[in-house]
Structure formats: structure tokens, C-alpha cells
Amino acid sequence: MSILINPLLAWAIHPADQGNIEYIDGLQNESHTLPYEDQVITRPFLVDPKTKNPVLVRVVEIREILETRGHTLVVVVTRADRHH
To answer: Could you tell me if 64 and 1 are in contact, meaning their C-beta atoms sit under 8 angstroms apart?
Structure first.
């Protein structure tokens, strides 16, 4: 187990849902806690591209990327109303 101190958090949309979820830059803040895999969540920056309303997403994977400048956790999401 590795303990991450102040990791960067990035969000990625699963390839099957490209065009079905839009990420709005600038709406993420530190009050948004780190989700866990298979959790269904809403975030104000993950929206329906047509309505711009937040959508339910399922966390399908959390990847840890080790870089020389620090750690990044990438949260991969898909629409919760889809079955993959």
C-alpha cells in the first residue's frame, strides 16, 4: 500500500461514453472527496453535454500515475445508467 500526500486528482471519461459525458473545467474543488471504484456519484463538473445538468456516473477505475513531480490519481467514470 502506498500513502499519497496531496495527490493531484484528474478525471477521465471511459471511451464508451465519449460524447455522453462532458467535463467542465474549473468546477472541481477540494471539497469533492475521492470516490471509490464502483461508487455512483454526481459532480457539478460531469454533465450531460446537451442539457449541461450533472449526471450520475459510476467510477469504473482509479489509476495511480507516478511521476517525478508527484502522484496523480485518475478517476475513470461512465454513465451510471449504462451497462458495460
So the answer is: no
